[in-house]
Each structure stands twice: as C-alpha cells, then as structure tokens.
Amino acid sequence: MQRIFRTLLFWTLILCACSMSLSPADTFPQIAKEAPSTTVSIATTAAFPDRPPDGEITAPAPTFEGCAYQWAYEDLPKLSSDFQRSIQGLQPAAQANAFAFGEDCISADGSATFTAMETDFNVTVEVADLANDAELGEWIVKVMQVIENIPPDQIAGPRPGRVSIAFQVSSEQKFVNFYVDQYRALPAGMSNTEIYQALQSQ
Asked: What is the reported pTM?
C-alpha cells in the first residue's frame, strides 16, 4: 500500500513540475497591446466651400460706393464780373468778387462733383477814416443794395451767403463779416452807425 502511494506521489510531482515549466505565452495566445492606428482626414473644402484648399480664407475686396465730401469753392465768373462792375460804379478803385461755397463729392476714382450751398461776396473799398462808424455803415448799405438787386437765378445755393467787406485806409484795414439774412433781419429805421455796430458784433 505504501508502495502504491509513493508511486502516485512521484508522478504527481513530475506532472506539476512540467506544467510549471510552461510560460504563459505558451499556454495562451499573445494579445496585441496596441490597437492599429487609424488616420482620420477631414475634407476642409467640403465643410467650408468658400475656403481654398490651403485653409486660408480670402475675403472679397471691399467696394467703395458713394463719395466723400469736403468743403469747396467754385468761381462764378459772370456774376463776379457783373458784381465788380457794379461796385466800381460806386468807387472805381474798389475790388469785388463773388463765388459759390459748397461741397465736393469725391468719388473713388478721384472725380468730384460740386454742390453749391451759398453764394458769397468779397468787397474791398477805400474809406477816409476807419474809426468813422457812420461811413463804414454807409458802405454796408451801398454794397447790400447792389447784392439785393442781383437776379435770384444768378445766386447759387439754397441758403443766404456771406458778405465780407474790407475797409481800407492806406495799408490799414478793418473788416466786417455777416450773412445776407443777418442784414435783412436788422430792424427798419436804423442809422448807418447802428447798422455797422450791429453787424460788427455778429
């Protein structure tokens, strides 16, 4: 009985030793540790049809519409000539001119279209005394009589223009500047002195 037990024990030990000599790799198939790499490509042009293949977005060139405005002047040769002739009828040495003031509409190509806003007048007259307000006021009245007699169709622009008068004695000058509607708004019956002083303070 002991002999049979020893024989079984002997074979049991041998079988255990054989099974332990096998590696796990021999017993189980090797499992891949890394999944195969997958490359995913995105079609940029399909997702963004307006984008070129290189991925840069090209914006359309801006277009310029309309125009840019800036203050401008325009000569009025016929009116200016007639105005000077009328003023020189009051004083041969006097100088006078008229011109339109308004805006230039400048387009993208550099061309400009002028729109008149008003007609302005410049006058230079000689006086005896710059301190004599009555004499200066008298000249204002004379100049305005000439301007008020200009036919309306010769006046450019929708609003009343500016009048600038330079009173001169030798190399000295004194100026008065006012708008036509300011002169028209003066109360009736004012003296020449009062007219000058009222417009000088405008």
From this structure: 0.66
DSSP 26-71: HHSPPPPSSPPP------HHHH-TTS-TTS---PPPP---S-EEEE
Q: Summarize pLDDT for 38-82 with one digit per residue, the tens.
A: 444 444 444 444 444 455 555 555 455 678 989 999 999 999 999
195's enclosing H/E stretch is helix 192-200
Domain limits, the chain:
77-98+120-200
Helix (H) or strand (E) holding 196: helix 192-200
Rounded to whole angstroms, the Cα distance separating 64 from 8 reads: 105
Q: Is the dihedral of CA 65, 71, 77, 78 positive or negative?
A: positive
